[in-house]
Amino acid sequence: MACETKSWLVMFLVFLVANCMQHCVHGVSQVPCLFIFGDSMSDSGNNNELPTTSKSNFRPYGIDFPLGPTGRYTNGRTEIDIITQFLGFEKFIPPFANTSGSDILKGVNYASGGSGIRNETGWHYGAAIGLGLQLANHRVIVSEIATKLGSPDLARQYLEKCLYYVNIGSNDYMGNYFLPPFYPTSTIYTIEEFTQVLIEELSLNLQALHDIGARKYALAGLGLIGCTPGMVSAHGTNGSCAEEQNLAAFNFNNKLKARVDQFNNDFYYANSKFIFINTQALAIELRDKYGGSNLRPFQ
């Protein structure tokens, strides 16, 4: 399954950087740098020193990872680790919290477990680095890159060649809207209104990235969040997936895809490229190929 997943994702990423697989040179990355924004799907250690219970720098996390537990929320590599290797990088992209001595010209990982598009998302665990704060951290790195290269203009020219991977939003539903004991969000917005709020806030952050040099974006949609153990336990029926939560993610993805189309039109003049990765469709595709249950698309 991991092999199929990475092949599907890399197909989009290779197209994004306008580079065909047959032209790849072994050991040479297809983009000079990769910047990662997201949540626990991509976090590689940014939560380790935060005052939060959302941590993964202990066993059994990392039992199949060469460096052991590092703060990745998995037994081995994350999805973006696999993408990083397929893009030709010799090393994994370091977390922002541990960039001292690392080559920031290759990129930085800003993702934080439990975080969301909304800054308050995930704070029932303790501290979290929401998307807005991740962007603020990126501005720090951009300033350091400008110093390394000699000027802001040279930094901008370099950053325009990089890939910006964004995979965030699941926790805004699972760890915010559908968690009324901790958040009043569901009393303020209908689910349709909240989804639109998320799209608008995400769009503002993507435009801010564009203003400081981002041109190549890979935007991952939300997966089947209603099929996660927590959502099945809290909202499912007889062990089935939670349909309301899956439908919310489906609608978010539709709106995000439409916004990607809009951005590709609006920023065409700047030679920008936005790609939407439909992770829900991928989950269904993998189910059909390898078998599984309680996974079905919404019509």
From TrEMBL:
Taxonomic superkingdom: Eukaryota
Keyword Manganese: no
InterPro entries the UniProt entry points to: GDSL (IPR001087), GDSL_esterase/lipase (IPR051238), SGNH_hydro_sf (IPR036514)
GO cellular component, one term: extracellular region
Subcellular location, record wording: Secreted
Record key words, sorted: Hydrolase, Lipid degradation, Lipid metabolism, Secreted, Signal
Main location (coarse class): secreted
MF GO annotations: hydrolase activity, acting on ester bonds
Signal peptide: 1-27
Family: Belongs to the 'GDSL' lipolytic enzyme family.
Name of the protein: GDSL esterase/lipase isoform B
Native source species: Glycine soja
